[in-house]
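Recall that a protein's primary structure is simply its ordered list of amino acids. Everything else, from secondary elements to tertiary packing, is in principle encoded there. The following example makes that idea concrete.
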Amino acid sequence: MASRRSTGKRRPTGRRKRRGGGREVNVVLWLAGAVLAVVAFKVTLPFLQRNWPWFAAVAVAVLVLSAAVAVVRARAHAERERRWFRENAELEKVDLLSGPEFERLTAWLLRRDGFRHVRELGGTGDRGVDLTALAPDGRSFAFQCKRYTGRVGSPEVRNFLGALAYAYAGHTGVLVTSGHLTRHALAEAGQAGLILVEREQLAAWLGGGTPFPRRMTRGG
């Protein structure tokens, strides 16, 4: 007997897929939901009209309660931030912080000193700037935070200057570090007019007193 060779083609089963069936079901369900919503509104409207003062009172109570909860949460968050800052407001503690925690500490100091719109940008896509903020006098500042126990070199300063020149033009640049800058980095920062907050200045800033930026000097 001769063997049959498969041609690789499937025979039609006689069943055809129904196109557009799912779309028709969705339209029907949507129309049914709309009809039910209209019916429910017509049924409950007289009840709402008779008892609207009660509903208004409930709505006001919900709004007041929501506002009170928001205030309590904001105060609790602020107290947690103050407690965290007090626990880390010494250089020995700062040396143990991670990079993001150091940025958080700097942001807290700025808010304490009256800066507004303090934004923490550190991480992927920060374009070379960790924080931005508006000073009490309205000037725009951009901050680069380096939690270093060693020295910040010229490459870090150049990267920051590049970000200021392109992505953050018009901002006054501030480099904050728990360490020190190298001699060449200091020279480049001075030529560019960066404000520098090195280890000794950071310790004074943590301790309070004259707020930033009046206590700080430009690099040079």
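The chain has a mean pLDDT of 82. The first strand starts at residue 116 and ends at 120.
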